[in-house]
Design a protein that fits this description.
The chain is of the alpha/beta class. Helices cover 67% and strands 7% of the residues.
């Protein structure tokens, strides 16, 4: 290709086109056709009739449902509050009841209602739906935490371009300190959004901030470390890790039981799921499962620290060689004369850093 300018533009178009493909595959693959896959439900009752009914439901649904029986309604409520089941059906000839916990998943509660509502219709009686864990009135669908996740993610991975590209001339130690500061700022903004602004968290706001900081710091340290090796491809990599795979597996819109096996598997250990499920545990489920989700966020932060440490070791000899070649002495007349010759290179580096920052896309 004869035109360097045209080649430069076409090269930079690769990233957005790959983002387009990746976002389409990830979002449409995860969200377009939600269907139950081994959705856990319970039938209340210890009599043979209840067990027969549960087996009938299982045989009818096939792999869509995992059906168990529990002896009492209180046992079913405990399972819902520990998020071991998505719904529990209490059979009755006159007043059947469906127990759900919509704070765990509004979509899950809707899916369970679609399963058991026809049973009541066949009996000719109304189905009573009881929500044992409702989200706050300021977040009636419980999906506000998913959008909080998006805000934290964009603030974190978009900052990587500034820290990695624009801050490339700084030592890794300085960039690491800046990363701590940025993660504190991003998580602070998240806490303000979750608390005083949109009132998603009516209590334990400090805990929400703590998990937001763990989440943001993990992303930032991973990104700053990767930038040493990936340069302008860091943005695409961060999009894959913390948007395409992260938002879709977080459980913020659909629980893993309503997604295919790929995203359901990621939900078990991805950091977005750790944040969303951790905040749910804190706000709605009496800290049940909180330690596991916090551990997930800590592991991702440790990975980020390791990646950043490896990047620092990789950069150290290069910086040492650069320091030897450019000792900090006073500028001589010859050096002053030679300065214009190196300015184009400096301008190119600055322009490359600016282009990389501009390529960062918020989704």
């Amino acid at each position: 290709m004869r035109s360097p300018a045209l080649r430069h533009v076409l090269t930079h178009l690769i990233t957005p086109l790959l983002m387009c493909i990746g976002m389409g595959l990830a979002y449409m693959g995860a969200f377009v056709t939600p269907e139950p896959h081994h959705l856990p439900v319970a039938v209340v009752g210890s009599a043979p009739k209840a067990k027969v009914f549960a087996q009938t439901v299982k045989d009818t649904a096939g792999d869509k449902l995992d059906v168990r029986t529990v002896a009492t309604r209180a046992d079913a409520v405990d399972l819902l509050k520990s998020r071991e089941v998505t719904g529990a059906y209490v059979p009755s000839a006159k007043a059947p009841e469906l127990l759900v916990a919509s704070a765990a998943s509004d979509m899950g509660a809707t899916a369970v209602e679609k399963v058991f509502a026809p049973v009541a219709v066949e009996q000719g009686v109304p189905l009573k739906v009881t929500d044992v864990a409702e989200p706050v009135t300021d977040d009636p669908t419980g999906q506000g935490l998913f959008f909080l996740l998006i805000a934290l993610s964009i603030g974190s991975y978009a900052s990587v371009a500034a820290l990695g590209a624009a801050g490339a001339a700084l030592s890794m130690r300085v960039r690491a300190l800046l990363t701590l500061g940025v993660s504190a700022a991003v998580s602070g903004i998240g806490a303000l959004l979750a608390g005083p602004v949109f009132h998603l968290a009516h209590h334990d706001l400090a805990g929400v901030w703590g998990m937001a900081w763990l989440y943001s710091a993990g992303i930032l340290f991973i990104g700053v470390g990767l930038h040493t090796f990936l340069k302008r491809w860091t943005t695409l990599t961060m999009m894959v890790l913390f948007v395409m795979l992260n938002f879709t597996s977080s459980g913020g819109l659909f629980r893993p039981e309503l997604q295919n096996g790929f995203f359901g598997t990621l939900h078990a250990f991805w950091n977005g799921a750790g944040f969303v499920e951790g905040v749910r545990s804190l706000l709605y489920f009496g800290d049940d499962g909180l330690s596991r989700n916090v551990s997930t966020l800590v592991v991702w932060l440790l990975v980020g620290l390791v990646v950043t440490g490896i990047a620092a070791l990789y950069e150290r000899p290069r910086r040492a060689r650069h320091a030897v070649g450019h000792p900090g002495t006073a500028t001589t007349e010859a050096e002053a004369t030679a300065t214009p010759a190196v300015l184009p290179t400096e301008r190119e580096a600055a322009r490359a850093a600016e282009e990389e920052v501009e390529e960062t896309v918020g989704v």
